Amino acid sequence: MKTRQDAWSHEEDVLLAETVLQYIREGKTQLAAFADVGKKLHRTAAACGFRWNAEVRKRHLEAIEQAKKQRKERKRALEMMKKWQKEQDPFPFPSAGSSQEAEGSSPFLPAAPLTLDQCISFLQALRHDAKQLETAEQENERLKREHAEWRARNEQLAQKIERLEARQTTVQEDYEALVKIMARARQLAAEEGDRLPFAQWLLAEAREQNERAAHS
Q1: E strands along 65-156, which residues?
Q2: Fewer CB atoms near the end CB (10 Å): N or C, the chain?
Q3: Which residues are in the HTH myb-type domain (predicted)?
Q4: Distance between CA atoms of 127 and 78, rounded to whole angstroms?
Q5: Rg of the chain's alpha carbons, rounded to an integer?
Q6: 114-120 — which CB contacts under 8 Å span 24+ positions?
Q7: What is the structure's pLDDT at 109?
């Protein structure tokens, strides 16, 4: 079986994927990546784009999302660098030809070249901001743990209150039953004119109640 001349090899697919992912990370277009790969493989940019969309792209979905994330992080870091540079030198003096150089330049590049001292100062400031962010994240985690603990304690107290309310209901019912027994005992004593002590009448009534409960 002959191999077609336009068939893509595994190595070519890898080159295409790596180039496109690199361009995504750097904030460049995929069309530029297809053109770059086409020159290296002696293929047209359209053929590279078709191969990417038809076969290669779906095998690197996770890598594409990671590359997009890195592009955002890189853009944010460079924007911070531009802002920091502007704060350090609020009135820069443009060099000759700087306007022509700025035209067509990537939006990810700094507005002007940085000195080594400026780069070091920026990285130190960035490190300080990273430490502050880490401290804030740790504080946030601590607050989350405290919230969970207070929530668990609140649930325990709610259960305890529920048990106490149920117990109070039982005590109230027992008290009402005892009042009825005492009233019944007084009524029997008055009707029969018996001189037995009140405690004996109470005991007799309680025994009668227990017998009724046993037969019910």
Answers
A1: none
A2: N
A3: 1-60
A4: 14
A5: 42
A6: 114/81, 114/85, 118/85, 118/88
A7: 47
Average pLDDT over residues 78-92: 70
* Average pLDDT for the chain: 78
84: tokens are: 């920091």
* C-alpha distances in Å from residue 160, one per residue of 99, 149, 166: 75, 17, 10
The burial of 199, by beta-carbon neighbours within 10 Å (0-12 exposed, 13-18 middle, 19 or more buried), is given as exposed
Q: What pLDDT is stored for residue 118 in this prediction?
A: 65
Helix, strand, coil abundance in the chain, percent, nearest 5: 80, 0, 20
Residue 88 has pLDDT above 60, yes or no: yes
Question: Do the beta carbons of residue 34 and residue 60 sit within 8 Å?
Answer: no
Question: Considering Cα of 39, then 45, then 47, then 49, what sign does the dihedral take?
Answer: positive
- Mean pLDDT value across residues 77-93: 69
**How far apart (Å, rounded) are the C-alpha atoms in residues 35 and 16?**
10
Per the model's pLDDT, the better-predicted residue between 90 and 35 turns out to be 35
